[in-house]
């Protein structure tokens, strides 16, 4: 088993046991079920579990969160473990990944709702409703992601996209497109500073209004 880093206790608190169980499930079945690449097993804690959980720093108490494109469970599952006060919905279109997420929730006794569907679909939007915060990681470039996520954010709420080194370039490239779908100016910040060796880079966009309607000609 991959050793549990000391900092995990600080990040997950009372949820550490659930985090360990989730890591063990991924270690045992993740590669075989095509959920993670073989190289990810060694770095499950720092690159995935801890990196995901620390984004909770930017989320208020007891709010509703929708995680779009959860895949193997990131960032939604570690976030739900570290922050049991949140009401978390995991959205995932692929059946085998949605099945996995349900299995994880049942095995580690995690109180989340798994919904199968694509974030941009009307039926999905009607089903999940609006949230205070919509999270995502590695789902789409910022402009497209904003078009999918902001309609799920209540006015005054925000989307939080975990991004890598591309974050600032994406913001510079896509800020206008984000504004067209109702987003405020995107900002880039780090979560887990002073806790993780490599903090998590997050792009934050507030939903300021509904998407702009295209102007009619004439
Ligand atoms: C590269 S994986 C990332 C998975 C996970 N967020 C992570 O960081 O490990 C992208 C995920 O987004 C999902 N996805 C793709 N298009 C989507 C859409 N339109 N709505 C919701 N999820 C989507 C895919 O099925 C896949 O699970």
TrEMBL record:
GO MF, one example: methyltransferase activity
Keyword S-adenosyl-L-methionine belongs to the record: yes
The entry's keywords: Cytoplasm, Methyltransferase, rRNA processing, S-adenosyl-L-methionine, Transferase
Stated name of the protein: Ribosomal RNA small subunit methyltransferase G
UniProt subcellular location: Cytoplasm
Alphabetical GO biological process terms: methylation
Originating species: Amycolatopsis thermalba
Pfam families: GidB (PF02527)
Described purpose of this protein according to its UniProt entry: Specifically methylates the N7 position of a guanine in 16S rRNA.
Family assignment from sequence similarity: Belongs to the methyltransferase superfamily. RNA methyltransferase RsmG family.
EC number: 2.1.1.-
Chief location: cytoplasm
Residues annotated to bind S-adenosyl-L-methionine: 69, 74, 119-120, 137
Keyword Repressor attributed: no
Alphabetical list of InterPro entries matching this protein: rRNA_ssu_MeTfrase_G, SAM-dependent_MTases_sf
């Amino acid at each position: 088993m991959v050793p549990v880093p000391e900092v995990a206790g600080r990040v997950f608190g009372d949820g550490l046991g659930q985090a360990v169980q989730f890591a063990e499930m991924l270690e045992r079945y993740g590669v075989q079920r095509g959920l993670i690449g073989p190289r990810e097993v060694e770095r499950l804690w720092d690159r995935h579990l801890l990196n995901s959980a620390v984004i909770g720093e930017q989320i208020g108490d007891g709010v509703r969160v929708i995680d779009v494109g959860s895949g193997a469970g990131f960032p939604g599952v570690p976030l739900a473990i570290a922050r049991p006060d949140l009401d978390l919905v995991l959205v995932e279109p692929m059946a085998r990944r949605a099945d996995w997420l349900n299995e994880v929730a049942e095995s580690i006794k995690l109180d989340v709702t798994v919904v199968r569907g694509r974030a941009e679909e009307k039926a999905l939007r009607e089903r999940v409703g609006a949230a205070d915060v919509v999270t995502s990681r590695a789902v789409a470039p910022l402009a497209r992601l904003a078009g999918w996520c902001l309609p799920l954010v209540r006015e005054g709420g925000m989307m939080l996209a975990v991004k890598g080194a591309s974050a600032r370039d994406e913001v510079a490239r896509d800020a206008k497109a984000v504004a067209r779908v109702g987003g405020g100016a995107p900002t880039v910040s780090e979560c887990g500073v002073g806790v993780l060796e490599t903090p998590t880079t997050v792009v934050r966009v507030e939903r300021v209004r509904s998407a702009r309607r295209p102007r009619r000609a004439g």
